[in-house]
Design brief:
Blueprint lengths: L2 H4 E2 L2 E2 L8 H48 L5 H28 L4 H21 L9 H37 L1
Antiparallel strand pairs: 1-2
Length: 173
């Protein structure tokens, strides 16, 4: 600590006060904050690597399907779409982690989480197959659940955008 910080015109610094534990708490808090930020950056790195591996894998799958002639099979194409949407989910999660690291506004983080949810549910709807369920009733229940979740996410996104616009106008006044 410099001389100006330890005894400025305001008097002695916080470290000279009887409650020196505050300084230790602040130091501990900073250390833990750095640790958490390091873990967040490590998670972002993992997601970036997963995305790169996924893109390479998708390209290899497409090349293999072109060589075998199965590129015209609708189920193969749906598999590509599924993989592509999964990669978009990874990108959205990566962006969410970065938003935490960069300490973005809560609104931005909420938007990213909603976008991730919408992509995930659209992916589920695209790959939905009634044959994967034990009965038609189970398939109908799952389809209805997906529909409700998608509707709720879109409603959340709509509300967030409208609220965000109104909140922005109010804060400028």
């Amino acid at each position: 600590m410099s001389d100006e910080q330890s005894a400025g015109p305001e008097g002695p610094s916080d470290t000279d006060s009887p409650d020196a534990s505050k300084s230790l708490e602040e130091q501990y808090s900073r250390i833990i904050g750095r640790f958490v930020q390091g873990v967040e950056l490590a998670a972002a790195t993992v997601f970036a690597i997963l995305f790169a591996i996924g893109v390479i894998d998708l390209m290899l799958q497409i090349l293999e399907a072109m060589q075998s002639g199965s590129i015209t099979d609708p189920l193969v194409v749906i598999g590509f779409i599924d993989t592509g949407l999964l990669l978009l989910i990874i990108v959205e999660v990566y962006q969410t982690v970065l938003a935490y690291v960069e300490e973005n506004k809560t609104r931005r983080i909420v938007q990213l989480v909603i976008y991730t949810g919408v992509i995930a549910m659209v992916r589920k709807a695209i790959i939905f197959r009634t044959g994967e369920y034990a009965s038609t009733k189970d398939a109908l229940f799952a389809a209805g659940s997906y529909g409700i979740i998608i509707f709720a996410l879109v409603a959340l996104l709509f509300a967030e955008q409208n609220y965000g616009s109104n909140a922005g106008l109010l804060s400028e006044e």
